[in-house]
Design a protein that fits this description.
Layout lengths: L5 E5 L9 E6 L8 E11 L2 E7 L3 H13 L5
Antiparallel strand pairs: 1-4, 2-3, 3-4
Length: about 70
């Protein structure tokens, strides 16, 4: 699941709360991969919640556009 402020998902590697990681992914409607840093805010087994750090205006707009067209998870 992705939102304008972060991303959550299942990861097989071991991350710790507060750890800063680099992410690279391609958003819908984007030609270039999005590269962001994120901090681990939630951990439950292999489920993680990551908060994006230091996004520029173009990255924020790309995330806003992507979130507006992606279906909501239930």
């Amino acid at each position: 699941m992705i939102g304008q402020e972060g991303i959550g998902g299942t990861l097989t590697g071991g991350l710790e709360l507060g750890e800063v990681v680099g992410l690279e992914f391609t958003l819908p409607l984007s030609r270039q991969p999005t590269k962001l840093r994120a901090i681990v805010r939630y951990k439950d087994g292999f489920q993680y919640g990551l908060e994006f750090l230091a996004m520029d205006a173009a990255q924020k707009e790309a995330l806003r556009r992507a979130c507006s067209i992606l279906p909501l998870s239930t």
